[in-house]
Amino acid sequence: MESVEMKVEMVGIHEKRVRKSLSKIRGIEKVEVDASSQKVVVTGYAHKNKILKAVRRAGVKAEFWSAHNDILHAYASGSSRIMRINNYNFF
C-alpha cells in the first residue's frame, strides 16, 4: 500500500470536491484532508499520477507535497518549534 501526499488549494467546498473525485478511483483505501495546512493524504494501491489527475480534473489546484511545503507551513503558522529535515534545523 502506498501513501500519496498532495498540496491542494482548499477554498470553500473544495474538500467535498476532492473526496468525490477520489471516490471514483479503484484502489483507494483512505483519504485524509487537513484543510488548515492544505494537505491531502491518499492511501491505497492507485498510481500517484492518476490520483493527482483526478483531483485536478475536479477543478482544484494540486501538486505533490514536498519538504518545502512543510517549511512554509511551519513558518506561516507562527510555530515556535524547530523542524529538522535532512540534518538541517529550521526555526
UniProtKB/TrEMBL annotation:
Organism taxonomic ancestry: Eukaryota, Viridiplantae, Streptophyta, Embryophyta, Tracheophyta
Name this protein carries in UniProt: HMA domain-containing protein
Source superkingdom: Eukaryota
Domain HMA: 1-63
Transmembrane segments: none
GO MF, any single term: metal ion binding
Organism expressing this protein natively: Aquilegia coerulea
A Pfam family of this chain: HMA
Family matches, as Gene3D superfamilies: 3.30.70.100
